[in-house]
Amino acid sequence: MSETKTSRRPAVIALLLVAGLLLVPAAPAFAKTEIQFWHAMTGQLNDAVNALVKQFNDSQTEYEVKPLQKGNYAEALTAAIAAYRQRQAPNIVQVFEVGTQTMMLSGAILPVYQLMKEQEIAMDWKDFIAPVVGYYSKDGNLYSMPFNSSTPILFYNKDEFQKAGLDPTKPPQTWKQVEEYSKKLIASGASKCGFSTGWPSWVQIENMHALHDQPFATKHNGFDGLDVELLINREFGVKHMAQLVAWQKENVFSYGGRRGDADPKFLSGECAMYMQSSSLIGGFTKGASFKWATGQLPHYGAPYKRATSIIGGATLWVMKGKPANENRGTARFLKFISDTNQQMWWHVTTGYLAISNSAVKNLEAGYHFKKNPDQYTAFAQLTKGTATPNSQGLRLGNFVQIRDVIEAEMENVFAGKKTAKQGLDDAVAKSNELLKEFAAANKQ
Amino acid sequence: MHRTVFKSRWLPYVLVAPQMAVTVLFFFWPALKSLQLSLYRVSPFGDKSTFTGLDNFTKLLSDPAYYASVVNSVLFSGSVTVLAVLAALVLAGLATQKIRGLAIYRTLLLWPYGIAPAVAGIIFLFIFHPSYGILPYFLSFVTDYQFNWLLKSWVAMTLVIVATAWTHLGYNIAFYIAGLLAIPTSVIEAADVDGAGPIRRFVSIVFPLVSPITFYLVVLNMVFAFFESFGVIDAVTKGGPGQSTEILVYKLYRDGFIGLNLGSSGAQSVILMAMVITLTVLQFRFAEKKVTYR
Question: What is the ipTM of this complex?
Fold first, then answer.
């Protein structure tokens, strides 16, 4: 008897479960228009994205933005491409800056300026910070909405500066000072190495060329056409690379890997200075057990001019072929996140740059930068220098692979397998192949 | 051999159908797709696609980076196979001795197989990373030697080989333990009586008797190292420094999924497929003759 009873119970539960499942779809009675938003922000940044989306969803009743974390940048892009091919693309996808050219020529997107025009949403594009907007514009029109932008700056360990007898309120301004300070730091035993770098290609090659007003590639860094060749094996590039190698021998410079792999070198106190994205301010505030501050990237001085640095990060692309009501919601969401208040909130919460001058002004007026001077360093570097064609950004196809090629060759040089000149020559030759291939694939 | 005879003519086909469906859907179809992809130059979003014939292949075969990747793969999978199979045989030999706590040892030996390759990679990363690894930290107290595999290719290669071999060790050990236990004790005892020492007994009796297992494991480990080792490499070196740990599968992934060059990545997968098929056929043709089946 009892046996049949127990054996029947799972069946009843299963039945209830099935009934429950059938009932669920009937629940949401008010059909809000859903906007799918795929992104690649993890950890605290993911929380910030969710909070931002919630602010928008709570601010109106017609649309509901659904954020979906899709792995890292490369994975989110691959997922969006696969979805697009199945006609299941999200409305909005976050793409890293190196994917800009690929997206622009994809034929799969609706440029943001066009979306806003179609939806008759007034945007004050002039208010956007030039180096940010320039990176993602074509013929003066913005193609994707800047979302998380940062630029590399110099972090330095104040405690170790003090120990070495250096002024902890004065970061080095020139490469010469970087060398000088590093030698003092090492000689005094304050630190084992002078400086390290994150994102080797982005910081030491791409940004150093921009900062010194040197072209990275032909055709205005690729902005003016697809038949582009890299120029990083010229006098400046080779000089800087050779300098890094020479410094490596004296521990003035220590290589710590790609991306953020070298972060521990700074956080552990091994290297007293560190060039890395300004978006790490938040992470270092939590992670560093010593006093630190920031300065602008060092410059070689004359004969090179000083231009602005370039940005990195990601933007939001709008996929084409969506119904008008969804596009309307997408447009309203993008307008919402670019508003001054949201920009200020985003900057304070995540450490990424606010993208409008009005947001920066308001932050200034609220003494935000007085209280957090390190948060200002990146803005200073981006707005106080001269913006030139060399510092407006990079517009290269196959850029993900090109960065890979450059960083692999940098490693060959740092490992002593090749000279600076050889390594950069090889990087240029391989990159030019990739650029040729991209041009061929995108010619119709 | 016992032969099953079905009464219905259709039943056997029905019974095989699910397996065939899976094979066709998840193997043949993607394989054909890659073959097709390899003949085209495709833009990432698939809107522009040009037939380029064997262009993708000729480009690959004239690219020194591709050959470097081939050399890396051969070195990598060869070393992983030798290391994983040999170490497994030795450990299995020890784990079939009459010792106390045998069950515990055996369980512990099989454990690493339960760890996903990516996780194994992360574990190795935390032990060996030049910046935050525990080993270089302790090493720095005794020596000035820089354990920096971010710049030393051979250290990086050794690291991913050891890590990959380690993840596959448990699987191999399980097979060897089963194989070793299946050897009749009478044979070993007879050799013992004839005056053969442990090494002689191993070389002349045990090793030949487990050779079918060794053969199976070599084929399997080779294929595993060629295809499944992606996780460890992605977690530890990402193919670096330079391209020194970029094996074929990893290059394929980077070119296809990060670089979005689907044509080239399709061509690479076709070549890879051909390589593995050839490898397996050759192994079964020639190596099997030397294997003693009981």
Answer: 0.80
Class of domain B56-116+156-290: mainly alpha
Q: Say if residue A83's pLDDT is above 80.
A: yes
DSSP-derived 3-state class of residue B120: helix
Residue B237 has pLDDT above 70, yes or no: yes
Q: What are the DSSP E strand ranges found in B7-93?
A: 40-42, 49-51
H/E run at residue A427: helix A420-441
The H-or-E segment that residue A67 falls in is strand A63-69
- Helical spans, DSSP H, in A86-226: 100-104, 112-118, 130-135, 158-163, 175-187, 200, 208-211, 218-222
Q: What is the mean pLDDT of residues B53-60?
A: 91
Res A343 pLDDT > 60: yes
The answer to whether the Cβ–Cβ distance between A415 and B258 falls below 8 Å is no
- Which residue does chain A place closest to B259, by CA atoms? A401
CB A168 within 8 A of CB A291: yes
CB contact under 8 A, A74 and B238: no
Locate the domains of chain A by residue range: 33-150+311-365, 152-309+389-441
Q: What distance in Å separates the CA atoms of residue A24 and residue B82, rounded to the nearest whole number? A: 55
- Contact (CB<8Å) B43/A105: yes
Mutate to test the interface with A, among B45, B59, B122, B159 (most CBs of A within 10 A): B45
Reference A231, options A248, A244, A218, A219; nearest CA is: A218
* Amino acid identity, position B16: V
Sign of the Cα pseudo-torsion (B130, A294, A393, A347, in order): positive
Q: Residue B76's CB: how many other CB atoms inside 10 A? A: 24
**Taking a C-beta distance cutoff of 8 angstroms, is the pair A339, A355 a contact?**
no
Domain A33-150+311-365 has CATH 3.40.190.10: yes
Q: Give B289's pLDDT tier (boundaries 50, 70, 90).
A: low
Residue A291 has a pLDDT of 96
User: Torsion angle, CA of A92/A98/A104/A106, rounded to 10 degrees?
Assistant: -80
| A180 burial level (CB within 10 Å; 0-12, 13-18, 19+) | middle
B150–A74: do the CB atoms touch at under 8 Å?
no
pLDDT(B115) > 60 = yes
Report pLDDT digits (tens) over A370-428.
888 999 999 989 877 788 889 889 999 999 889 989 999 999 999 999 999 999 999 99
| pLDDT at residue B131 tops 90 | no
Rg of chain A over all Cα atoms, to the nearest angstrom: 25
Identify which of B44, B150, B242 has the shortest CB distance to residue A81.
Answer: B44
Check whether B288 has a pLDDT greater than 80: no
What does CATH list as the number for A152-309+389-441?
3.40.190.10
pLDDT at A12: 55
Q: Which of A171, A131, A136, A134 is nearest to A150 (CA)?
A: A131
Q: Can you tell me the distance from the alpha carbon of B156 to that of B158, in angstroms, rounded to the nearest whole number?
A: 6
Under 8 Å between Cβ of A215 and A304: no
Residues in chain A: 444
> Which region, left, alpha or beta, applies to residue B138 given φ > 0 means left and ψ of -120 to 50 means alpha?
alpha
Res A7: pLDDT: 47
Rounded Cα gap, residues A249 and A239, in angstroms: 16
